[in-house]
Amino acid sequence: MADVSIRNVTKRFGDTTAVSDLSIDIADGEFIVLLGPTGAGKTTTLRLIAGLEAPDAGRLSIAGRDVTKAPPAARDVAFVFQQYSLYPHLSVYDNLAFPLRSPIRPMAKAAIDAKVRTIAAMLKIEDKLANKATKLSGGQMQRVAIGRALVRDPAIYLMDEPLSSLDAKLRADLRLELKRIQAELGATILYVTHDQTEAMTMASRIGVIDRGRLVQIGTPREIYENPFNAYVAQRLGQPAINLVDAGLFPDLAIPQRTATLGLRTEHVAIARVGGAARGEGRGLVRRVEHLGDQNHIHVELDGTPLVLLADADSDIGAGDRVDVRPERPLFFDREGARL
Amino acid sequence: MNDTSTVRRLATRAAEATPPPVVARVGGLGDRAIAWLFIAPTIVLLLAINIFPLIWTIYLSFTNFRANRPNAAVEWLGTRWYTSILTDPDIWAAMQVTARFVVATIVIQTVLGFLLAVLIDKKFRGHGFWTTLILLPMMLSPAVVGNFWTFLFQPQIGLFNYAVSFVTGLPPSSFQMLGDVSLAPWAIAIVDTWMWTPYVMLICLAGLRSIPDYIYEAAEVDRASKWRQFWSITLPMALPFIMLAVLFRGIENFKMFDMVNLLTGGGPGSTTEVASISLKREAFEKWRTGYSSAFAIILFVTVFGLANIYVKALNRVKQR
């Protein structure tokens, strides 16, 4: 395990700039999650660190050693590919053992066997070891891919949406498991995802990435509560933050230059207008989604749709008139920057 | 009760709305009949030019029929030809020549073809041009190839002899590729290799191209050297394709006739007399039609049996 530092790295493919002037310092033992939509440059960032792409500008160092021009094998990284990249002609066992059989660092057969079995048990694929890698379900293949990285003890684990093709339950299990393994091994992980739950639950720091640029990096809490701009605010929160025109609430004291208000679903008070007096209130409830532990209330306020959060036992129903009061709004200017 | 009537009404309506099947409009023919109608010409053709001759050959192989005496009485001989062929040392010699030729050409062409494919697969500048150039021999007619190699092998004026003499220093007319007992089999192997290695290369190239890049990327990250990548990824993943190429070349060269006939005609002596040349001699020079029919059947069964065993092995490799 070691520090990894990315300095002003830029990568272009023809006319498109996949990664633009990106700098991140990853401390030993950190779990950094890069969050961003498809095409934001997350995967390219991982590939640059792994050495599968060469940067057009900038420097990369791992454990204090400049690896900008080093081949992948010399960088001591492990990579979990999104498309698994298993060796299709090998068994699960041989796939897991493959990185350990590297002649660069010879390892005793018994030690390899022990390691493979430990990791297989950890990922619950010990009964599949004899199977051919391609004769597995998608979830099993993805676990083998994760296992092939975990058998090693590299400077950094690079993971490209490793849980994307698992079902919801397995994803939740493996999320916890990965976090546990990371804490146990003290592993340094750079993890790429577009799933905010994964980012929020696993990351020691989240880096939000947009069109190849790192917009903000910080702890999940910082990112959630103090988003640098409207883009970051939109990345986190389920349902997503409500971005509404600054003039929607005339009574609200707002800083100058505010163009947009950001209202987190839970930061808005909602109350049904007094008892039977329906038809008052500014907001009209269009729809209520019952999720069991909470309700998502879709309100229309002077033609602006809002999604708000209400308790599970709330009795607000479609057609009700409601009062809506922002409690902790975020203010953004015309460019989306936070005020 | 109301429910059932609703269902019935819906069913009736659905039936009315569904257009009648096309076949009903074609003179009361059923789907099966129409299907037969479509494949019948092919089947008839197949029976006429493949199955019937095969059965007829099997029949002839038990008789003393001679094609140059079609009116002579045909006598039923039972398995006499088979016994005599399988105990004939000349036939065994021809089979050995064939086997040696098949094995030698397969080994050489597979190794060369695969190496060429590995080289061509590197995406260097102008690799399309080189691919086309390499594929040229394969596109020529065997008759053309046979004739101009005869010319190239000419001891006095042949370019091949000249080139060999240039490299080794031997006088060009000191050896005869087609006339020397020890060189003639190699002359044929050289020409066959020149012509068909591109074909093996093409199949191997398809195999190499079928290996996705990300497998190599994973191997790079897993610290596998280029050498290890070749042995543990490239070769095993291309193996089914290589085996397919071997199968095609094996079957082709087992019945190799054109090149041998054009270059040496089986000589000198009988050093290059492969099975198909012997067969042609028996059938169309000695006119022993019954005998050669039996020989042809034996060859057919041999190739068919070997190919079957091989295909089973191939499938096992593919499923591995």
Could you characterize the architecture of this molecule?
The complex is a heterodimer of chains A (339) and B (320). Chain A folds into 2 domains: 4-235, Rossmann fold, CATH 3.40.50; 242-332, Nucleic acid-binding proteins (OB fold (Dihydrolipoamide Acetyltransferase, E2P)). The longest helix of chain A is centred in the middle third of the chain and has 18 residues, at 168-185. Chain A has helices spanning 42-50, 92-97, 109-122, 138-150, 168-185, 196-202, 220-225, 230-235, and strands at 4-13, 16-26, 31-35, 57-62, 65-66, 77-80, 156-160, 189-193, 205-210, 213-218, 242-245, 260-263, 268-272, 283-290, 294-301, 304-311, 321-326, 330-332. Chain A is built from 8 helices and 18 strands. By secondary structure, chain A is of the alpha+beta class. Chain A starts with a strand and ends in a 7-residue tail after the last strand. Chain B is mostly helical and 320 residues long. Chain B folds into 2 domains: 19-60, no CATH class; 88-319, MetI-like fold (Orthogonal Bundle), CATH 1.10.3720. Chain B has 14 helices and no strands. Chain B has helices at residues 2-17, 22-25, 31-60, 80-86, 89-121, 127-139, 142-152, 159-168, 184-209, 213-221, 226-254, 258-263, 275-284, 289-319. In chain B, helix 5 runs antiparallel to helix 11. The N and C termini of chain B lie far apart (60 Å). The model of chain B has no long low-confidence stretch (mean pLDDT 86). Chain A: One of its GO terms (cellular component) is ATP-binding cassette (ABC) transporter complex, substrate-binding subunit-containing. Chain A: Belongs to the ABC transporter superfamily. Chain A: Keywords: ATP-binding, Nucleotide-binding, Transport. Chain A: One of its GO terms (biological process) is carbohydrate transport. Chain A: GO terms for molecular function: ABC-type transporter activity; ATP binding; ATP hydrolysis activity. Chain B: Keywords: Membrane, Transmembrane, Transmembrane helix, Transport.
